[in-house]
TrEMBL record:
Cofactor(s) this protein cannot do without: Mg(2+)
InterPro entries: A-D-PHexomutase_a/b/a-I (IPR005844), A-D-PHexomutase_a/b/a-I/II/III (IPR016055), A-D-PHexomutase_a/b/a-II (IPR005845), A-D-PHexomutase_a/b/a-III (IPR005846), A-D-PHexomutase_C (IPR005843), A-D-PHexomutase_C_sf (IPR036900), A-D-PHexomutase_CS (IPR016066), Alpha-D-phosphohexomutase_SF (IPR005841)
UniProt KW Isomerase keyword: yes
Protein name: Phospho-sugar mutase
Spans through the membrane: none
Keywords noted in UniProt: Isomerase, Magnesium, Metal-binding, Phosphoprotein
Record-linked Gene3D superfamilies: Alpha-D-Glucose-1,6-Bisphosphate, subunit A, domain 3 (3.40.120.10), Alpha-D-phosphohexomutase, C-terminal domain (3.30.310.50)
GO biological process: one example: purine ribonucleoside salvage
Recorded superkingdom: Bacteria
Family of the protein in this entry: Belongs to the phosphohexose mutase family.
Molecular function (Gene Ontology), one example: phosphopentomutase activity
Domain Alpha-D-phosphohexomutase C-terminal: 470-551
Domain Alpha-D-phosphohexomutase alpha/beta/alpha: start-end pairs: 57-172, 239-333, 344-454
Length: 577
């Protein structure tokens, strides 16, 4: 419960915000909340304090938060000020004639926010290019380099709950050179934009035009399709195989997002003739009515897709998240209840890495990259194929900056398989590569599970698991990390901890980031870090079991599972959550 003084301060701050909020609906919403808080409604007072607790700040995926009035929410005023800050930073480098391409998903208010971004850019003297309809994030990321713009803004909250929206910034054109061209912004530019936002003044003092931007046509999406088909042709040549994708039966779900139409075009164009969409999740719906959370990682999110796959005896399930930058795969598995297994992000990461690694084998200047929280199996795959390997901080804004990148992934279902065209994760082209791999294995009478077993025999069984703590207050995360730093475990999973690294001190020469990394003498590792998008403390566990032969796989899997369970228990005790 808030003290009276804090409540009064929040109400005063809210009144000042209302005075300068250009959106009538947001003004009315915040005014109603103030009235309820001042009448003694404790819940309203807590909500008001949270909304006025500070500005939304750039995290792993840009600005992201609940839709609503106030500086700590996604709304018109916040979008105006964020865009004014972005324009100011762009002008410092390229002058007044800035070029910005803007896309949006189908979430609540996304189209409104996208037009607001365009209006601020035009009013600032720049050129704004607006994609014509709700579109996948990878298309926006592609458009930056395709159109040679200085920046791109995508209005999306990706796989967050329906109440959220967000604002992702990419830099290209005259702002960036090298492999980061077309990738999401990183420090120090994010801090520079935040400083420019703070200096921009109230939203009602920032000019916003009602037009003057250029509405793009379908040619950008057509160019994206052409780039995907060029990737397919390149892989067909490099793999020296004729994967018969026309013999593959695939179930696709867009999770009520914007990926169904374009993914269907891409997969159809490479020859996937038997593609069945989950009808109830095909059309964009900002309320995501058939899932508790529109995130393919969440339990139950693929239930409808797997039910359909079981009914039609499909070979593969492809699940995109709502903005289609992530991709999950599920495959038949007679050993589990229901007969289908959803693969983990690390498993898909290894499978795609093995396929692409074999395609690009022998060129040490080509690199397979992963985030530090993803499985080290990719490093072994790269070494076997005589390719370079790299680790980066979490987020594709870092992975995409890897020199020589031909493939990058992170365990949260993000895969970059065509970095020449899209310097970001892309669920649609990841699905393309997944279908090629599935078709190749099917022709040989094998499965993705068989290939995972092959990798375990060759490189050891790399078993990974998440451990996530959702909290109500950010201070709970800070306190847990403080406890871990003060008394780190001496052993995990029965093996002595040989390395305890504060990631703020830098790891492998990477930029400082909040969190810790632990590694045992056996080679098991744990990374603990706060989420950059949600109020969560996230732990990433990996254990490695040597496998003498396929007959030892069952024992190795059982031993790895037991050790992961033990490490989860030990880590939970250390964190005190």
């Amino acid at each position: 419960m808030l003290s009276q003084g804090v409540a009064m301060q929040a109400a005063a701050s809210a009144r000042e915000w209302i005075e300068h909020d250009p959106d009538a609906g947001d003004r009315a919403e915040l005014r109603s909340l103030v009235d309820r808080a001042e009448s003694g409604d404790r819940r309203a007072a807590d909500e008001l304090d949270d909304r006025m607790s500070g500005m939304l700040r750039f995290g792993t995926a840009g600005l992201r938060g609940a839709i609503g009035a106030g500086p700590n929410r996604m709304n018109t005023a916040v979008v105006i000020r964020a865009t004014a800050g972005l324009c100011e930073v762009l002008r410092r480098t390229v002058g007044d004639d800035i070029h910005v391409v803007i896309g949006h998903d189908a979430r609540h208010r996304s189209w409104e926010f996208a037009r607001t971004v365009a209006g601020v850019v035009v009013a600032a003297g720049g050129r704004a290019f607006l994609l014509p309809h709700a579109t996948p994030t990878p298309v926006l990321a592609f458009a930056i380099n395709d159109l040679d713009t200085d920046a791109g803004v995508m209005i999306t909250a990706s796989h967050n709950p329906a109440r959220d929206n967000g604002y992702k910034v990419y830099l290209g054109g005259r702002m960036v050179t090298g492999p980061g061209r077309g990738a999401q912004l990183v420090s120090p530019l994010d801090e520079q934009i935040m400083a420019a936002i703070e200096a921009s003044g109230p939203a009602d003092g920032i000019p916003v035009t009602a037009g003057g931007w250029q509405m793009l046509d379908e040619s950008v999406e057509d160019s994206y399709l052409s780039a995907a088909l060029a990737l397919n042709t390149r892989l067909a040549t490099l793999s020296k195989a004729s994967e018969q994708v026309d013999g593959l039966r695939v179930v696709l779900t867009a999770m009520h997002g914007v990926g169904a139409e374009l993914a269907s075009r891409v997969l159809g164009a490479i020859g996937v003739a038997d593609l069945q969409l989950v009808a109830a999740q095909r059309e964009p719906d900002p309320d995501f009515p058939t899932v508790a959370f529109p995130n393919p990682e969440e339990p139950g999110a693929l239930d409808l897709a797997i039910t359909l796959a079981r009914q039609i005896s499909a070979d593969l399930v492809v699940a995109l998240d709502p903005d289609a930058d992530r991709c999950s795969l599920a495959v038949p598995d007679g050993s589990v209840d229901g007969g289908w297994r959803q693969l983990t992000g690390d498993q898909v990461g290894a499978l795609l890495g093995e396929y692409l690694g074999a395609c690009y084998a022998g060129d040490k200047h080509r690199v397979l990259a992963r985030s530090i929280v993803s499985s080290s199996l990719l490093d072994a795959i790269a070494a076997e194929h005589r390719l370079g390997s790299a680790q980066t901080l979490t987020g594709f804004k870092w992975i995409a900056r890897t020199p020589g990148l031909v493939y990058g992934y992170e365990e949260a279902l993000g895969y970059c398989v065509n970095p020449q065209a899209v310097r970001d994760k892309d669920g649609i082209t990841a699905a393309l590569v997944g279908c090629r791999l599935a078709a190749s294995l099917k022709q040989a009478g094998r499965s993705m599970l068989d290939l995972l077993d092959d990798l375990a025999v060759r490189h050891g069984l790399h078993a990974t698991a998440p451990l996530t703590f959702r909290v109500d207050e950010a201070e709970q995360i800070t306190a847990a990390l403080r406890r871990l730093a003060a008394a780190p475990p001496s052993s995990l999973g029965g093996s002595r901890v040989r390395e305890f690294v504060n990631l703020m001190d830098g790891y492998l020469g990477l930029p400082p980031t909040p969190g810790y990394r632990l590694e045992t003498e056996r080679g098991d590792r744990v990374v603990v870090r706060p989420s950059g998008t949600e109020p969560k403390l996230k732990c990433y566990l990996e254990v490695v079991e040597e496998v003498a032969g396929r007959e030892q796989l069952a024992n190795a899997k059982a031993a790895a599972a037991a050790r992961l369970t033990q490490i989860k228990q030990e880590l939970t005790a250390c964190l005190g959550l």
